């Protein structure tokens, strides 16, 4: 990043000048019912990108998104990003990516805001208390699929721009939007689109803002890192077909016994990764970090009660947060090819594929993790002297992303939070992976901030997803304030 | 068993007397096209007991079976064995059990022959080379679902009785049949039916014959034992719902890690069961048994090539057969609740249920096995100091069955094999479980023989199931001879 560091106090001072925040905030407050209605309209569109039967709804969602931006006078494009090939060979069209631009003043900084308007699947019978596609307000919470992930944040950004325009206030920065419709299934087609628009759409972008995550507690947060994901398939193949366990059990070396033995060498009961080289590669925890974690508002008891467990892997806040965000971990997801239905089946599965992933962190490199895991599993397998065949494949190698929290984007974030919420934000990381952040970073070379407005308990991907009216409306104000604060970077740093 | 032992030579001598085997064998040879047509008609009925959509076909199959027996002049009953409750609460009728009786001479012994006319599922697209429900002859093999399991053996028994009747020869024994239609899904309703008919249908039965298994090689065999089956569910429950492995990985003690660790304590890579007490309970291998196994015709190389493996758990015949038939083994079948689909999913499963079974043998007791496994897993789990909850359940506790090979039923079997095939049979056991054998033994107190006519390579439950024309036709002759040989037990032993 190119900007010199300036003290927070300077930013705060400069930001007071000429910014009619109160007018804008009042406008938001007096229009909040319209914002809720806009969210209701969007939630009603079942834009589930994982279900091809809902593809027409997804296309409609992208058109609604584009229409909304057009009505605000933006320069809008619906970008064809090609087709999707289904496992059965069928070809279907990917949803268009929507881009929009508001303002083209070369004296101003240009921000690009990323979001998505596709959603995870949801069915009432999964255990929802209300119809997931009919936004329902209960005790100040707005329940519906996609409410927090990511429809309300996208709308909040749109409303933030709209507020400036409605009050005939000049936007403090040029604003570009890029909204996609395949995020929930891996952002199919987006990497190539970003690559091919590097020298056009992205050429004048200074900063990238992502609001596709949540706070850690009731306190606002800025997110400065995500873990990567090295996802492995370990396949053990034995007999040429499944065998009856009565007839053949005891005579063959069973692939399931082998794979269980291998999986059991990955991680200890206390969470220690046993693959040589992994732990050694991790960037050491600095005293500064330790101090930061110590200061974060985070209650272990409410975390436990939210998950429904009686004990966590670590019983102090710093260790827990560090292992959630900045240390690697191994999760075993399941085994394909074995018997997984209810009931009983007396089968010796002939070929089993274990799925596990390592959330990796700086300074681990996916290519090295792949080598370490593959060599280790093969050496463990050799010890078993099994005649079966082992194949280890890394099917995802998504890198972690980390921002420099001294970047002025974060200073602007702190100032905006202070203005709206009258508190300092927590500086947090995400344990999960948002690969698009790393793509933006690598392709555009620009600084990125993750500026969440979702609540810590919004239940993303789960039943009864919601966003609170408070987070939605105050979040809109936060975005308004942020557009101003980020514009101040230029003034102060040129 | 009540019969004194008599030397084989005496049986052979007495069996020559008055038995017009050649006439009967000629009759079978000259009617073999009709027998193949009868099998074709039966195979065409998709009597899949596991698929409720095929239930009307299954009812039709039982009616066809009854009709065939009625046409031969038997005293036939279709016995209502009640209803089946489906997982969704729906109630459907179980297929009737068909019983029949031929002859009621109190001076003769009475045999009861058990079989089933339901089949496993089959679809052409599963990898069948021919339509599974259209019997197709290729190179002397009759391909079709249920051909070997168990329609041809049932027909061979019916044709054996028919041959005597067509030639106006007196049946040497009274013959009773009991044919069911739920064998492939666990003989639902049959145990109760046997119990309730103990003092009626079964009261005058002397011997029970089951022909629902196969030879070990190209050599005919008599089967004198089956392993039991203790099937376990080991459930580990952690968080109250599935968690995102990125967001929560590293902070929770994952149920999958626990269950993998537990499963890995069951059996060593070399096949040694690690649960204390299990191996100690097994009846020791006697020198006699060792000698018997040594004499059995069994080729390790063709066994390996049939299964498609390059190495077996044991590389000598005696150890291999002993571990197939008379030693226990542990097979891990799979894990319910984990991710088992193709592709990737970044989930921490909240509750996982591992399925594994122990094929147990004399002198292991299911109730003791349950105790040993449960205590062992709980002690291993305690060492992990996991906050998750472990529940161990034994959902099947089917006992092994073993006959005394000195029983005259087996002497009769040897004589019949000698007469038809001019060789001595192998005396073999089944690694699998046929729980009905143990039920017959326990409820009726009668001696039981398993007299197989299926080939070693018939592919039961698999694609391209078949029976060879040779096994079907010579098997019919074997049954004809067996009815005579078993009648000689009475003469010689009274």
Task: Describe, in short, the structure shown.
The structure is a homodimer. The first copy, chain A, has about 500 residues and is of the alpha+beta class. Chain A has 16 helices and 20 strands.
Structure description:
Chains A, B: Mn(2+) 1 binds at residues 149, 184, 461. The structure is a homodimer of 494-residue chains. The first copy, chain A, has 494 residues and is an alpha+beta fold. The first copy, chain A, folds into two domains: 8-226 and 400-493, 3-Layer(aba) Sandwich (Aminopeptidase), CATH 3.40.630; 229-283 and 326-398, Alpha-Beta Plaits. Chain A contains 16 helices and 20 strands. In chain A, the strands form six sheets. Chain A has a six-stranded mixed sheet with strand order 1-4-8-5-9-19, with helices on both faces. In chain A, strands 13-15-11-16 form a four-stranded antiparallel sheet. In chain A, strand 2 (83-85) and strand 3 (91-93) form a beta hairpin. Chain A is globular, with a radius of gyration of 24 Å. The two termini of chain A are 14 Å apart. Chains A and B meet through strand 12, helix 7, helix 8, helix 12 and strand 13 of A and strand 12, helix 7, helix 8, helix 12 and strand 13 of B.
